[in-house]
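Section: Multi-chain targets

For targets with more than one molecule, the full set of components is provided together so that the structure can be written out for the assembly as a whole rather than chain by chain. Components appear in the order listed by the source. The example entry contains two components.
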Amino acid sequence: MENLYCTIFIVDTSLNPDEAETVSSRIQQLVEDHGGIIRKINRWGKKRLAYPVRNNSHGFYVEIEFTANSRLNIPKIIEAEYRLNDRVLRYLTYIVSKKELIQREKNAGKRAARQEQEEALANKLTVAEPETAPAEEKAETVTAEEEKTVPEKEETEKVPETPSAEHETEQEVKKEESLEESGVEEEPEKSPEEPESGETGEEEKSST
Amino acid sequence: MLQRKKRMCRFCEGGDIYIDFRDEKRLVRFLTEQGKIVPRRTSGNCNQHQRQLANAIKRARHLALIPFVSDIPR
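Its structure, encoded as tokens over all components, is:
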């Protein structure tokens, strides 16, 4: 039975950066010699490993897809090669299922749709840019006017507040003086603590 | 009293037939902080997709795309 195989392997390129190419060419040769047909070679590049493998933090990922008859037993041959090679850190060979192929087609369709959408958006943006630019300017001017008007209001509001607050404090001070005088004269032992605490609280509020 | 929303299988909602082990970002969502596979009762996946997901995670682990164990919480 004709199968589509996918093999992925990680090569240690710390000593020799060309090691990945030599290994992948060797695998391709093996596949073709034994009657397989290479469909796709995908180099993921140097990636960080999720955990150290033989004290390596990085590895070069290569993915090769090929079709072959299941009687040829190519995966067995390839994996023997992987095991012999010390530079190959990890390998995975599996038969690509029909479901995966269908899913790939779906994803490709989705990607194409997305690209189309993005392109359409880009076209719209290029058309809309001159229209939006003046609108933004208008918005800026509006905000500037608002900013101008707002501080005036604040000032007008503030003006009556400050004198009244001052008056209050003055009045309170007068009250305090009168209360202290009266308290000291009438009840020197109990009363002075309570009114003082209350008045100090009011003072703090008014000051803030 | 506690009424939890019944979670739908995310892969069924997306209409995915096959879960690819290559996109680790998607798989990481179904791992705990320690790197364990999240059970179906919490992830809400259906039977078929949970099985596929488990296989995908195991393949990704073998290829060092996903950690087997990660003690440091992200």
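Chain B touches chain A through 15 residues (CB under 8 Å).
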